[in-house]
């Protein structure tokens, strides 16, 4: 009986002080030239907890963000088949990228786009895309301002986003106001949309 009483008394504080989380928010703040990751948890009894994690100065913050973007792109290419959040996550990353540029003056997606273009511009290959009527040529270029562009069968160039080798987004595809997201399938050595209907494949150039 003593043991039972002890268990009841021991559990009582946890029952009395049990709190339900009503919000859990993580965001970046800047203080005196340094950046911190703030995590604020609000409970239903009006109490809250704030956890602050030091990130570093502008250079360290940018490097941390760039690594985060690279990891996201890698996760996209692995998990895309099992998630319906693929395009939403890419859109969120593009929005986040704009905020990072406002804070640091640097653009993580521009940096990753250089890696994308390096992969796409390998002169040992040419690329083609299926648009519903067979495969036709698609080419890639990059502007002085580091903006990635693509052109289908010598039509007008359109903007694209690159997250390194793993993920690309073609804007204005197939028409203005739409976009196409593709991930790199390492096994098949091609880019493919989540539904498998659109493919960009590379073709070896015979020399």
Can you lay out the helices and strands and say which pair or pack?
Elements: H1 2-16, E1 21-31, E2 34-43, E3 48-56, H2 58-79, H3 86-104, H4 108-120, E4 125-130, E5 135-142, E6 148-152, E7 158-163, E8 167-171, E9 179-185, E10 190-192, E11 199-204
Antiparallel strand pairs: 1-2, 2-3, 4-5, 4-11, 5-6, 6-7, 7-8, 8-9, 9-10, 10-11
Helix pairs in contact: 2-3, 2-4
What tags apply to this protein structure?
alpha+beta; elongated; 4 helices; 2 domains; 207 residues; 33% helix; disordered N terminus; eight-stranded antiparallel β-barrel; three-stranded antiparallel β-sheet
Q: What can you tell me about this protein's structure?
A:
By secondary structure, the protein is an alpha+beta fold. It has two domains: about 20-55, no CATH class; about 60-205, no CATH class. Helices cover about 35% and strands about 35% of the residues. The chain contains four helices and eleven strands, in the order αβββαααββββββββ. The strands form two sheets. The protein has an eight-stranded antiparallel barrel with strand order 4-5-6-7-8-9-10-11. It has a three-stranded antiparallel sheet with strand order 1-2-3. A hairpin with a 4-residue loop joins strand 4 (about 125-130) and strand 5 (about 135-140). Helix 2 runs antiparallel to helix 3 and helix 2 crosses helix 4 (about 110-120). The longest helix has 22 residues, at about 60-80. It is elongated, with a radius of gyration of 24 Å.
């Amino acid at each position: 009986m003593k043991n039972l009483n002890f268990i009841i008394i021991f559990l009582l504080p946890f029952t009395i002080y049990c709190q339900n989380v009503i919000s859990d928010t993580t965001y970046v703040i800047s203080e005196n030239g340094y950046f911190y990751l703030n995590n604020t948890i609000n409970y239903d009894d009006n109490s809250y907890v704030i956890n602050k994690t030091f990130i570093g100065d502008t250079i360290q913050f940018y490097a941390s963000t760039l690594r985060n973007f690279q990891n996201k792109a890698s996760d996209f290419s692995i998990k895309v088949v099992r998630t319906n959040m693929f395009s939403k996550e890419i859109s969120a990353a593009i929005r986040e990228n704009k905020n990072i540029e406002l804070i640091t003056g640097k653009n993580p997606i521009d940096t990753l786009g250089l890696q994308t273009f390096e992969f796409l511009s390998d002169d040992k290959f040419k690329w083609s895309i299926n648009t519903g009527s067979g495969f036709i040529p698609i080419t890639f270029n990059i502007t002085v301002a580091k903006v990635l562009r693509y052109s289908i069968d010598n039509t007008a160039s359109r903007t694209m986003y690159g997250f390194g080798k793993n993920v690309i987004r073609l804007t204005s595809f197939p028409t203005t106001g739409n976009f196409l997201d593709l991930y790199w399938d390492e096994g098949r050595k091609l880019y493919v949309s989540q539904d498998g209907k659109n493919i960009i494949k590379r073709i070896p150039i015979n020399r």
